[in-house]
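Sample A.
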Amino acid sequence: MRAAPRTRGGCACRTAAAVPTWNTHAPGDEQPGKSREKSVWHRLRGACGSLLSTHGRASHLRSRVPAVCESREGGGGHRGRGGSSGMPPPFRIAVLGAQGVGKSAIVQRFLHDDYSDAAVSSRTRRVHLSAAVLNGHVHDLQITDYPAISSFPGSSLQEWSDVCCRGIRSAHVYILVYDICCFDSFEYVKTMRQQILETRVMGASETPILIVGNKRDLQRGRVIPRHNVSDLVRKSWKCGYVECSAKFNWHILLLFGEALRSVGCVRCKHVHATIRFQRALRRERCTLM
């Protein structure tokens, strides 16, 4: 019988008992070291998955929050004043009149202090955004220059079916412009005012309307005496009346100041309300008539 080999540390049985063995698992069972590594990996992957899930839910919620922005003329989008800051909504001013009375010239003079003698035929509505400071409070202005329309829309369906009339029924104040040298343009203003009163529902007792006689620089060609028009508009129609000249920048600021005062804002009702318009005070020129 062959004796078991000896080692320096003792007999072979003691050496076998001291050395751990990893081959006691059945086939298919994972080894303990690898099992611990896999468990750590599973925990890491689970933590990463929860983080990704939370990030995805946050991104989904952020995508559902509507962005408040506003497109301005000559500038990019930004957070509107009527949004989260709690500022009042913009004053919507609608400028109406017959063809060739100078509606666009008045708006251009007010916004950019610019005037051109070239006649521009506007066939589409143009929306301009500006701002006004009323007694220290900033208000947005949305001035819409409408082309000559055949009739005022009698319903919201008619308003939005015609591209040229969109938003006209929701205006806060109407500026009706006529040419003091053209009788037909005054008849157009008379008809338009009557249609506004008959068809528009504002939810208030009265609809602010301002009648504006343009081209005061052509005083000698006037077809209707000024006092006759003023008495008719102020006494019978109960509307404001202003004469101006877009060419010489005469009473341009005055007519927009009167338009804001007629809106019914508490800050505008004061007779001596301080009104400052954006861009309109630069290089102001006045001509005596």
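Sample B, a different protein:
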Amino acid sequence: MDNSHTRRGHPCWFRKPKVGLIAVNDGVLLRNHICRILKNHFRGKPYYVDLLDLFNEVEFQTASGQMIDLITTLEGEKDLTKYSLSKHCRIVQYKTAYYSFYLPVACALVMTGENLDNHIDVKNILVDMGIYFQVQDDYLDCFGNPETIGKIGTDIEDFKCSWLVVKALEICNEEQKKALYENYGKPDPVNVAKVKALYNELNLKGVFEEYESKSYEKLITSIEAHPSKAVQAVLKSFLGKIYKRQK
């Protein structure tokens, strides 16, 4: 839906011959299989209804985040003054953090009879981890190797509310801001190259490295404050899989 060309190293499904908009219906079919799979495996379990509710709620949160992301890039309504760290955080919290990080752990808690309301601290850590993960994604979209990350980054062309552009707007001077306004969100490779050159001029690689280091330290501190060593181990294993990732 973001008009990309590749995902996971392969052409996007809707770009395959004879697929096109049929991909929308394919997506609906896949979504419906979630309920069918849950029904087949867990219908007789006491936590079945809670599991269904959890998936439905996380799906709503993800779709809401995706909607906020998409409506910020509407043609004719592109306005960099609307972009801020708070808006970026809201988008990625809903679009990425809940389904990628919170959902797997929440499922395990529900299936062991736990009340999710008693684990808000775990939820907050996982959401923070998901936000950090998406910031990495924004960084790799621009600076990552397409062969390694499995896609060709298009955040600049698509006028995405990326962490990179938000940080650039925070630290650039008026001349640099003017260049950003003139070139961001345009598909011409010349404009994209100018934005990337500006990112390098602002040393956004260094800014990201500092953010990554501080995020890791903050997450480790929060994890080690949890009273359960078993929970700490799970959360640390999640963090270990994404810290300084290259794809």
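Observation for Sample B: The radius of gyration is 20 Å.
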